[in-house]
Amino acid sequence: MAETIGLYVHIPFCQKLCHYCDFLTFEDQDDVIPQYVDYLIKEMQLYQDRDYILDTIYFGGGTPSHLEADLMAKIMDGIYATFKVTDDCEVSIEMNPESVTEEKIKTYQAKGFNRFSMGVQSFDPKVLQIMGRLHSRQTAIDKFHLLRDLGCDNVSIDLMFNNPRQDMDILNRDIDQAIELNPNHISYYSLMIKDNTNFQRWLKAGRIKLFDEKTDRDMYHNIQDRLSQAGFNQYEISSFARDGKESRHNKKYWQLENYLGVGMGASSNIDLRRFTNTRRFKDYFAAIDQGQMPVESSEMMDLEEREKEFIMLNMRLRKGFDISVINQRFGIDFKEKYKDALEKHLKYKVIQIEGDHIYFTDYGLDVGNQFYLDIL
Ligand SMILES: C[S@@+](CC[C@H](N)C(=O)[O-])C[C@H]1O[C@@H](n2cnc3c(N)ncnc32)[C@H](O)[C@@H]1O
Ligand code: SF4
């Protein structure tokens, strides 16, 4: 039976690695890009008999816009030849400012891309420099305008806070600039120090310092207040959108809907099965050569695990979830089953229940971990 799902396509290439990033991506493997593109298409063909209908497609990375325009076109042609795609499918691409060109944008548009997500991180020269970004503040602004001039009416930008060298004044100037550009969507992430990154090494060596927890929260609240005053709705912990411009694809992750991930390291979630692809080129190519899915790990989750996951992910959304939905999906009486945890966190105003609806309060968004622990 035909099933409607989201498709994630992983592009593990960047021009240069940023000092904070541990995503599965390479700065010195451009030679394999054409082969990788061919194998992505072959991998998708392994799913051809599944009768999937795609209503969201998301190219993430790495930096999908690092690929030449004709290669992106080739992957999209491969998708259209392999899967059914709905007429109103949301098709997103992650880009970074230095690799965006007029030719690429025009190709993306011709191939059905309708949501453009550009990683900006900060508009401050010093912050950009320490992060290891290749673009200047002006390049980010110019490329944003280029997208608009070419008719892209759904543009998102990624920003980060709590970066070294970014105090509250710099953060405020970043927010001013973001509001002035007026994107349709902003993802605003708190810097995480990841293993085996330069930031981790520099932190250990005392070369950079992090802000304390209170400053991190002050910055977050400032972002929430200012973006909300500017008319952005916060619909998830890190996501702010103009009306109707929430990321449909990302909502599939948080609402535990089905998605297929192709490309190295990509994860899939289909019904109760979760599987993740290999992270090595050699293994990825070898599996596909043998007509096998390049899957490295796969688990069947039981309903109980899935139910906890449903709660954790849905609570990332500001509107939380409907209790009748979880009751129906997992055959439980949610209020009864989690009575103790709910009573405790209602008392401390971590969560709010209104009718059928449960969600984190503003305070709960900051201290949600304890709620998760009690649910688990
Ligand atoms: C795949 S990148 C986006 C596209 C492109 N590669 C770029 O960097 O412009 C996804 C986003 O994850 C965020 N990110 C990456 N590493 C992070 C970290 N250590 N802490 C917080 N956010 C991070 C950044 O905002 C980045 O834009
Ligand atoms: S943040 Fe983006 S450009 Fe920088 S290394 Fe990570 S994926 Fe590549």
Question: Which helices and strands, and how do they pair?
Answer:
Elements: E1 3-11, H1 33-45, E2 52-61, H2 69-82, E3 84-95, H3 102-110, E4 115-121, H4 125-131, H5 137-149, E5 155-161, H6 168-181, E6 185-190, H7 198-204, H8 213-229, E7 233-236, E8 239-241, H9 248-254, E9 259-262, E10 267-270, E11 273-277, H10 281-289, E12 295-300, H11 303-314, E13 321-322, H12 323-330, H13 334-337, H14 339-347, E14 351-354, E15 357-360, H15 362-375
Parallel strand pairs: 1-2, 1-9, 2-3, 3-4, 4-5, 5-6
Antiparallel strand pairs: 6-8, 7-8, 10-11, 11-12, 13-15, 14-15
Bound molecules: S-adenosylmethionine and iron/sulfur cluster.
Iron/sulfur cluster binds next to loops.
Task: Note down, in words, how this protein is organized.
The chain has a nine-stranded mixed β-sheet, sandwiched between helices. A three-stranded antiparallel β-sheet has the order 10-11-12, with no helix packed on it. It has a three-stranded antiparallel β-sheet with strand order 13-15-14. The chain has helices at 33-45, 69-82, 102-110, 125-131, 137-149, 168-181, 198-204, 213-229, 248-254, 281-289, 303-314, 323-330, 334-337, 339-347, 362-375; strands at residues 3-11, 52-61, 84-95, 115-121, 155-161, 185-190, 233-236, 239-241, 259-262, 267-270, 273-277, 295-300, 321-322, 351-354, 357-360. It is globular. The model has no long low-confidence stretch (mean pLDDT 96). The protein is built from 15 helices and 15 strands. β5, α6 (168-181) and β6 (185-190) form a beta-alpha-beta unit. Helix content is 42%, strand content 23%. The chain folds into two domains: 3-254, Aldolase class I (TIM Barrel, Alpha-Beta Barrel), CATH 3.20.20.70; 304-375, Orthogonal Bundle (Arc Repressor Mutant, subunit A), CATH 1.10.10.920. The relative contact order is 0.11. By secondary structure, it is of the alpha/beta class. Probably acts as a heme chaperone, transferring heme to an unknown acceptor. Binds one molecule of heme per monomer, possibly covalently. Binds 1 [4Fe-4S] cluster. The cluster is coordinated with 3 cysteines and an exchangeable S-adenosyl-L-methionine. One of its GO terms (molecular function) is coproporphyrinogen oxidase activity.
